[in-house]
Structures are given as structure tokens and as C-alpha cells.
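Trying the structure run again after the queue cleared.
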Amino acid sequence: MIGKQLFENYGAYSGIWDEMCYQDGIRSQYGQIYNDIAQLPVELLLQKDKQAGELFMNQGITFTVYSDNAGIEKIFPFDIIPRILTGTEWRHIELGITQRLRALNLFLKDIYSDQQILKDKVIPAELIATCPHYTREVHGVKVPHDLYVHISGIDLIRGQDGTFYILEDNLRTPSGVSYMLENREVTKRIFPGMLGNSKARMINNYPLLLHDILGSLAPQQLSNPTVALLTPGVYNSAYFEHTFLARQMGIPLVEGRDLLVDNHKVYMKTTAGLQQVHVLYRRLDDDYLDPLVFRPDSALGVPGLMSAYRKGNIAIVNAVGNGVADDKAVYAYVPAMIKYYLNEEVILPNVPTYSMEDADARQHVFENMEKMVIKRTNQSGGYGMVMGDKAAEEELAGVKKEILANPRDFIAQPIIKLSTVPCFIDGKLQPRHVDLRPYALCGPGGIKIVPGGLTRVALSEGSLVVNSSQGGGSKDTWVVDL
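Done. C-alpha cells:
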């Protein structure tokens, strides 16, 4: 059998947007892929699929599943058929993400200073007061260039009608960009020439862009500021990414024990003595950054780090306190933020969201549980989520009790059947649901978004949960100009 027959046998789901197929055939952006793969024997594609797995294994491209007692280190699953977006689609995504980040940055600046948005009752004050990630310790702290969000991975999904929706804002320590870059490198290895034929836009300059933006955030005007990446250590789920990015940028990878604070300045211990650090790209949650301010039992952070931050002697990327804008209950108000701060119409809409603190919304959700996904407002990675159409009656009854006991901790959204893409599974092309996480970098010179991002795939048939921690995989993502 040859590749052409794989495409002919591909069965897209009825009533769901498929990224490759539509009623009259294959979408134009997939035309070159079809031409390149159509004449290849399926046996060769199976070899390439195996080769891709070996490349990931040999390069140690892994993640950690904390709930798996059998062996927590997993090779990141990769599908060899790329997901392809047109330049026009990408432009719409770019504009929408840029707009959203401008508003979110203004919100963070406001919420940690004058709180005008609360005074004007655009967002309920009690919503912020009850947010566990609202960090009072940084209220009034001046950050370089008034930028709070430097690196974001905003999750998008595509609904049945082809509309892109924002699913989630990741503004604290977003992960996955190393997988995006490695996916592209593996694609180049297994399909040499195919990228060139399709004229997919380049993404390999991300580490350079990131390094330039990190350097530009130094509190003092320095020609060569010292930038370091702070990792929790080898047992963190994204440790591969930490080492990858530090190596790609040519900056030191440090743990809390490698740093000390003296006279409100942060220093790195080196064989040549102490060296001042001006920018810290932290991959460590706020609670663990400084045991003198946050969790006193944290052995991962740096005692005194927050004093240096308050004095303006170090830039921390992303800013401390961004979690207030990541709260899923606050997410529902981002369209209102865009209108309030920018006076613009929303380009990329939210998924419709029901606050469980609203009695009418709560009653509607309870009456339609089988059509809803219930989410805890301060969990991520696919945890704390209940799919109403998959849950047993006992589980739904338990969730209702939890919601009634503490409605602030929950939101509900209608289940949206995510768009599908063709995946090469068991020697066949099969549709699987996907989302998209583009990576945006915000610096004094503006917002830059690498074309494509990370496409995450729900590898189990019919599943809508794409998180790697829940058994998902990923694809190389191309943006092509037709």
C-alpha cells in the first residue's frame, strides 16, 4: 500500500472541523504534503515513525508524569504528519494573541497598583481578593518597562465551525516550547526536503529571540547583562526543557543553591567567584522563590530574592504575581479587560464560561452536566477537570457537592468538539483532536510570536484531553503561505 491510499481511506468525523479535509477534498495547505507522501510506501512511513521515536529517545526528550508509579519518565509521543495552518489563519491568531497580551499586561500593572478596574466594577473586587495567586507581596513593585508577561503559551482550540477560541492563558511558567523546536528538527530528519517544498515558516530563531528579550529586560542599562535560568532541579517535569533552553541560549542553568543575595543584589556562585545576575528566567512557581517571603520550607528558592526584586536590582521573568491573570475565574473577564483597557472588539473569543458563584449559571450547568466540562479554577495540566459526557453519575454528584461547598473554585464550559487532524497510528491515517499553543515573547520592542507553536494531540480515539500528563502527544506545526 502507498501513501495515496492512506489519504483515500482517511475518515474524518462527521460534524467536526478537520484541519486537512473538507466536503470537497483536501484543503489547499495540505496539497504539498499529499504530493510528497502519496507515492511513499506505507512500510517506509512506518520506518520513519519508528525513527522519530528513536530520535526522541536518544535525545532524552522526556516529560514527567507524577501520578504514574510504574515509571514517571516518559518519551514525548510525536506524530509524523504535520498540522498545517495558512498564513491568513496565522495572521488572525497573531492579531488576537497580541491584543490579548496587551490587555492582560495592563491588567497586571493595574491590579498591582491603582486597581482602577476594580473601582470601576468591571471585575468584582471579591474575585481578586479570593484568588490564591493574587500576590499582595508585590503590590506597588515597579517592574522593568512595566512588563509583567514576557513569555506566554496561550492555548487555542478550533470549534465545529472553524472558529478559533482562547481556551487558557498561561502567563506564569509556560512549558512546551522545547518540544515545538525538537518536533521541527525531527521532521527535518525524517522528511528531508518536505519543509522546503511546502515553504513552511521558520521557527528555529526562538532561542535567539528569547535571549534578546531577556537581555533587554535588565534593570540597568548594560551592554552585556548576566541572564540565568532558574530550575527547580532534575526532578521537575520540564527539566529537559530547562536544560535545552539554557543550552540553546548559552546561559547558565542554576538552582536556588547556586545563588545568593547580598546587599539586595543577586549573585551566582562560580569557580571565578561571585557574579551578579541581572535577569532571572525562573521556571519555579512563586511560592518557592523566596523562603523569607513565601513558603518558609522551600529549599528550591533563594533567600532574599524578593528584596532584590523590590529594589529593582533584578528582573524576574515572568513577573511575580502573574498567577492572578491565570485564574480560570478571571479568564472569563478577559474580553471585558480588552474593552476596558484597549477599547477594541475582541479578535479571538473566549470559550463560553459559567461562573459557579452565579446561582443562575450554576443551576443551568447542573441541569446540563453531560454537556459541560467542569474545571477547578487553579489547576492546570488536565488535572481537576471533569468531562460531563464521560463521567459516571457518582462522580457528577460528587462534583455538584464540591461546587455547592465552594463555588469560587469552579467554572464550567460547554464541551466543544476540538478540530481534528490526521495522525499516523498503527499504519493508518486516523483523525485525532488537537489544540494549539503558540508562544509569544513580550519585550520593550513589542510582541513577537513564533509562527506555529505546539500542536498537542489527544492520541486516544475520541478523547478531547490533549495534555501530555494525560496521555497526549504532539505534532510539528507549519504555517504556509499559499
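Residues 3-90+175-201+422-480 form one domain. Worth checking whether this holds up in the mutant runs.
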